[in-house]
C-alpha cells in the first residue's frame, strides 16, 4: 500500500507558521469542566428528518439535559432537564462514626448516577421513550415526561415497535408495552442469568410485526476477578468472558405464538458469532451476517419468509480471509424498496468497498414487493441459490458508512456513503446512483474538510459530527441531500456550538502531516509537532505517542477521545520537545494489508514502524537520538513496554499506561480481539510468547514507568502486577517505577487521576530526556 509521500492538511509547512498556545499545565488539560467544553452526545435524528435531540450541559458538567434542534438550523432548546424527574430513592446510608477515611460515594460519584439516556423516537416523530434510574418514561416534546414503570428490576434497551408499542428488556428477556392499553406482552423466555443464557440483538422488522433475536449460551465462559480495594472490606466481583454458542430465533410481537421459530442455518465451524441481523423490505425475510472458522470466514445469509412453510435460506456471499475478517465488512443494508436487493461491505479488493447483491426468483413475483402477502407465482416458489453480485465502489480507499436512500428505487436507486477517497486523514460524503444493470456513478457532494463521525440518515436528511484537529466536533445537518446548487454541492447547517469561545481563541502549534517510508517500502502516516521557533541548528528531545486499540486511526484532521493527549503533546512542545504520532501497522483506515500486517506478531512490523519513525525524526527534525521517549495507553502501553525492552538503543524512557504485558491474559479478557491477531494460545503459543512484553523483562535497561487502574476489567491490572513481580525477581528495580489507581477502570474518569497520571509522565520525561 502506497500513500502519498507527503500530504498537508492546510498549507505548505513553514516554520514561521507556528504560534504557541497559551502556556498549558497538566491540571489545565485534565480539568473538569474541560477547557475544550462538553460535546453533544446521544444525538438521534427523528424518522421524519425534521429534528435532532441530544444530551448536553452548557457548563460542561454532569448531569446532561436533553436538547432539541431543527435540522434546518436555529437555536437549540431544552426539552427535558434531570431536575424535571423524580429524585430516585435510595436505601438510607448507615451513619458511620469512623468517617475520617475515604468517601466512596463522593460528589463525583453522585454527579454520575442516574443519567438520562436510551432515547428513541416513535415512527411518527411525535414521542420519545427513555430510561432514567432504571425506569421507563414517555416524553412528548413540549409536554411533561410520563413515568411508565417503577420497578426494582430496570427496564433497558427501549425502542418503539410502532406508534403505540414499546419494546424493552427486563431481567434479560424482551417485553412489549402497549401505551394505549397498558398491557404487557412477554416476547422472549430464553434468558436465564443463572445458567448464563442471554438474549441479545433484538431486531424488529419495520412494521413491528416480527422480532428476531440472538440467544447466546455463555456457560463455558471463564470468570475473571476484579478486586475492589476501596471499601471497608475488599470485594471481588467477577466478569465472564469467552466464546458463546449462538442461535437466531424469530417470534411475532403480538404474543400469538408461545414457541419462536428457530432459523436453522448451516452449522458453524470453530468459534462463531452473529455480527448483524436486518430485515428485508417485505418484513418477512431476514438477513444474517455470521463470522466463523475462528474469525476467518464471513457468511451472509438471506432467510426468505422466516418461519413459513416455504422458508428458504440463500447464501448471499461467503468470504474467507486467512488472517481475520474486517470489522467494516459488517456493513449490510437491504434496499428499502426492493426485497431482493441489498448491499454489503467487503475487503476482498484490498479496501472496504460496497457490493450490490441481487437475488432472483425462479419465476416472476406477483404483487408489490413491499406487500408481506406477495408470493412467487405458481410453479416456482423459490429463489435462485446464487445472488448476482456487483462491486459498486473501488479504489485505494475505504467506505466506512453507507445507507440506501428511501426516496429513490429501481433503476434510480441511490446510496449515500462516507469514504476516505479524498485522503485518509478526513472523510467525505458521496452519492452513488445505481442504474438497472447495477453499475454505480459516484458523485461527491461534501465541501467540508475534516473528520465526519456518527452519520445518520432519515427521510431526505443527514446529520453528522464534523471536527478538525484543533476544533472539537459539532453537529451538522444536510436537510435535503437532493437539493444541490449549480456546483453540485450540498451545504450543511451547523446545529450545535458547544465549544467555548476561550478555546477557539487559543493558538496551537499546527501539526505537520507526513508519510514516513518504512523499511519494507510502505508509507507510515505521521502527525508531527515541533516547538515554536524550531531550529535545525539545535538538538531536541522527542516523545513518540502511541495510540491505543491497535485498530484505530489517530493521524486525522479531526477530534477524538485523545483530545487530552493532543493537549499534552502541545504542552510537550512548549517545553521544548518534538512530538510524533503515527498510525502504525494494524491501524484502521488504510486497508486490509495494513490492518493485518500484525498477524501472529504484535510488536513485529508495528514496532518496526515506530523505530523507522524515530530514525526519520532523528534525520529530518534535529532530534537527539539519545533523548527519545515514548508513551501510550492500552495497546499504546504495550508498545511502550516493547520499545523499552527490545529497542534500548532507540528509546531512552517509556511510560506505559494500562498496558498489555501478556497476551494470554488478554485472550482471557477479550478472546475475539486476541484470536483475530494471534490465534489461540494452545495452538499458537510461540506467537503469544514473542508478542508479550513480559517475555523480554530481562532485557529492560531503560527507565520504564508503569501506570494502571486496579479496577480495569479490560486490560486487567494483573498484567502490570505480573510484570512488576518478574522485574523485581530479575533485580530490575533501578529501571522501573509504578503507580496504581484503585478507583479507575480502563478508561480513567476522575480528573484527579488523569492529572496525577500525566504529571508523573511529564516529570518522568523531564528527568530522563532533558
Task: Describe the 3D structure.
Helices cover 15% and strands 33% of the residues. The chain has 770 residues and is α+β, with helices and mostly antiparallel strands. The strands form ten sheets. Strands 35-36-38-37-39-40-41-42 form an eight-stranded mixed sheet, with helices on both faces. It has a four-stranded antiparallel sheet with strand order 1-2-3-4, with no helix packed on it. Strands 5-6-7-8 form a four-stranded antiparallel sheet, with no helix packed on it. Helix 8 packs across helix 9 (671-678). The longest helix has 19 residues, at 751-769. It starts with 25 loop residues before the first helix and ends with a helix.
Secondary-structure map with pairings?
Elements: H1 26-30, E1 41-45, E2 51-56, E3 65-70, E4 77-80, H2 107-111, E5 117-121, E6 128-132, E7 135-139, E8 146-147, E9 155-160, E10 165-170, E11 173-178, E12 184-186, E13 197-204, E14 210-217, E15 222-228, E16 235-241, E17 245-252, E18 261-262, E19 273-279, E20 286-292, E21 297-304, E22 312-320, E23 332-334, E24 341-346, E25 353-358, E26 388-391, E27 399-404, E28 413-419, E29 428-434, E30 440-444, E31 451-458, E32 461-468, E33 471-478, E34 493-494, H3 501-504, E35 512-517, E36 523-529, E37 540-546, H4 563-574, E38 578-582, H5 592-596, H6 605-620, E39 623-633, H7 635-646, E40 653-657, H8 663-669, H9 671-678, H10 685-691, E41 704-709, H11 718-729, E42 736-741, H12 751-769
Parallel strand pairs: 37-38, 37-39, 39-40, 40-41, 41-42
Antiparallel strand pairs: 1-2, 2-3, 3-4, 5-6, 6-7, 7-8, 9-10, 10-11, 11-12, 13-14, 14-17, 15-16, 17-18, 19-20, 20-21, 21-22, 23-24, 24-25, 25-26, 27-28, 28-29, 29-30, 31-32, 32-33, 33-34, 35-36, 36-38
Amino acid at each position: 500500500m502506497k500513500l502519498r509521500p507527503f500530504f498537508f492538511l492546510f498549507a505548505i509547512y513553514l516554520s514561521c507558521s507556528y504560534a504557541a498556545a497559551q502556556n498549558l499545565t497538566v491540571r489545565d488539560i485534565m480539568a473538569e469542566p474541560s477547557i475544550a467544553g462538553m460535546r453533544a452526545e446521544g444525538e438521534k435524528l427523528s424518522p421524519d428528518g425534521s429534528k435532532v435531540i441530544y444530551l448536553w450541559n452548557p457548563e460542561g458538567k454532569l448531569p446532561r439535559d436533553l436538547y432539541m434542534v431543527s435540522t434546518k438550523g436555529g437555536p437549540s432548546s431544552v426539552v427535558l432537564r434531570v431536575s424535571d424527574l423524580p429524585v430516585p430513592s435510595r436505601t438510607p446510608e448507615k451513619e458511620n462514626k469512623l468517617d475520617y477515611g475515604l468517601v466512596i460515594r463522593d460528589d463525583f460519584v453522585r454527579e454520575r448516577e442516574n443519567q438520562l439516556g436510551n432515547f428513541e423516537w416513535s415512527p411518527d416523530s411525535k414521542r420519545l421513550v427513555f430510561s432514567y434510574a432504571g425506569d421507563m418514561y414517555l416524553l412528548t416534546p413540549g409536554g411533561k415526561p410520563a413515568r411508565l414503570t417503577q420497578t426494582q428490576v430496570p427496564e433497558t434497551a427501549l425502542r418503539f415497535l410502532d406508534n403505540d408499542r414499546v419494546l424493552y428488556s427486563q431481567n434479560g428477556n424482551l417485553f412489549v408495552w402497549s401505551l394505549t392499553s397498558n398491557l404487557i406482552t412477554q416476547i422472549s423466555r430464553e434468558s436465564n442469568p443463572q445458567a448464563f443464557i442471554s438474549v441479545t440483538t433484538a431486531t424488529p422488522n419495520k412494521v413491528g410485526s416480527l422480532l428476531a433475536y440472538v440467544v447466546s449460551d455463555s456457560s463455558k465462559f471463564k470468570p475473571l476477578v476484579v478486586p475492589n480495594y476501596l471499601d471497608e472490606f475488599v470485594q471481588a466481583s467477577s466478569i465472564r468472558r469467552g466464546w458463546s454458542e449462538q442461535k437466531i430465533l424469530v417470534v411475532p410481537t403480538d404474543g400469538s405464538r408461545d414457541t419462536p421459530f428457530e432459523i436453522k442455518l448451516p452449522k458453524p465451524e470453530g468459534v462463531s458469532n452473529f455480527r448483524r441481523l436486518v430485515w428485508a423490505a417485505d418484513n418477512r425475510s431476514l438477513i444474517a451476517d455470521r463470522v466463523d472458522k475462528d474469525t476467518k470466514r464471513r457468511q451472509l445469509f438471506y432467510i426468505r419468509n422466516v418461519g413459513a412453510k416455504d422458508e428458504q435460506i440463500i447464501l448471499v456471499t461467503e468470504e474467507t480471509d486467512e488472517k481475520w475478517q474486517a470489522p467494516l465488512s459488517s456493513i449490510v443494508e437491504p434496499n428499502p424498496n426492493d426485497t431482493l436487493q441489498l448491499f454489503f461491505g467487503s475487503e476482498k479488493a484490498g479496501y472496504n468497498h460496497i457490493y450490490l447483491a441481487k437475488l432472483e426468483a425462479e419465476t416472476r413475483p406477483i404483487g408489490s414487493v413491499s406487500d408481506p402477502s406477495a408470493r412467487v407465482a405458481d410453479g416456482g416458489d423459490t429463489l435462485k441459490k446464487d445472488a448476482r453480485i456487483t462491486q459498486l465502489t473501488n479504489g485505494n480507499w475505504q467506505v466506512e458508512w453507507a445507507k440506501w436512500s428511501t426516496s429513490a428505487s429501481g433503476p434510480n436507486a441511490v446510496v449515500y456513503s462516507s469514504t476516505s477517497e479524498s485522503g485518509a486523514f478526513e472523510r467525505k460524503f458521496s452519492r452513488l446512483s445505481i442504474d438497472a444493470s447495477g453499475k454505480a456513478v459516484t458523485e461527491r457532494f461534501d465541501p467540508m474538510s475534516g473528520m465526519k463521525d456518527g452519520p445518520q440518515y432519515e427521510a431526505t436528511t443527514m446529520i453528522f459530527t464534523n471536527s478538525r484537529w484543533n476544533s472539537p466536533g459539532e453537529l451538522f445537518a444536510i436537510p435535503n441531500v437532493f437539493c444541490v446548487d449549480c456546483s453540485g454541492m450540498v451545504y450543511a447547517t451547523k446545529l450545535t456550538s458547544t465549544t467555548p469561545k476561550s478555546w477557539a481563541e487559543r493558538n496551537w502549534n499546527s501539526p505537520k502531516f507526513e508519510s514516513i517510508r518504512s523499511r519494507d517500502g510502505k508509507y507510515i502516516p505521521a502527525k508531527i509537532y515541533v516547538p515554536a521557533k524550531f531550529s535545525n541548528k539545535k538538538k531536541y528531545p522527542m516523545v513518540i505517542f502511541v495510540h491505543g486499540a491497535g485498530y484505530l486511526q489517530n493521524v486525522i484532521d479531526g477530534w477524538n477521545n485523545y483530545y487530552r493527549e493532543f493537549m499534552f503533546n502541545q504542552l510537550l512542545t512548549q517545553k521544548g520537545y518534538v512530538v510524533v504520532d503515527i498510525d502504525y501497522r494494524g491501524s484502521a483506515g488504510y486497508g486490509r494489508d495494513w490492518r493485518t500486517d500484525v498477524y501472529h506478531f504484535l510488536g513485529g512490523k508495528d514496532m518496526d514502524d515506530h523505530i523507522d519513525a524515530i530514525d526519520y525524526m532523528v534525520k529530518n527534525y534535529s532530534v537527539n537520538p539519545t533523548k527519545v521517549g515514548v508513551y501510550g495507553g492500552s495497546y499504546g502501553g504495550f508498545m511502550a513496554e516493547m520499545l523499552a525492552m527490545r529497542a534500548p538503543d532507540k528509546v531512552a524512557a517509556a511510560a506505559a499506561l494500562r498496558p498489555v504485558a501478556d497476551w494470554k491474559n488478554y485472550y482471557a479478557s477479550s478472546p475475539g480481539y486476541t484470536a483475530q491477531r494471534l490465534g489461540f494460545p494452545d495452538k499458537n503459543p510461540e506467537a503469544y510468547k514473542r508478542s508479550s512484553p513480559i517475555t523480554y523483562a530481562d532485557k529492560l535497561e531503560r527507565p520504564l514507568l508503569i501506570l494502571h487502574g486496579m479496577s480495569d476489567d479490560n486490560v486487567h491490572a494483573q498484567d502490570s502486577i505480573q510484570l512488576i513481580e518478574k522485574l523485581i525477581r530479575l533485580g530490575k528495580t533501578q529501571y522501573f517505577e509504578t503507580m496504581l489507581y484503585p478507583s479507575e477502570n480502563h478508561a480513567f474518569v476522575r480528573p484527579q487521576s488523569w492529572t496525577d497520571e500525566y504529571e508523573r509522565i511529564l516529570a518522568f520525561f523531564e528527568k530522563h530526556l532533558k
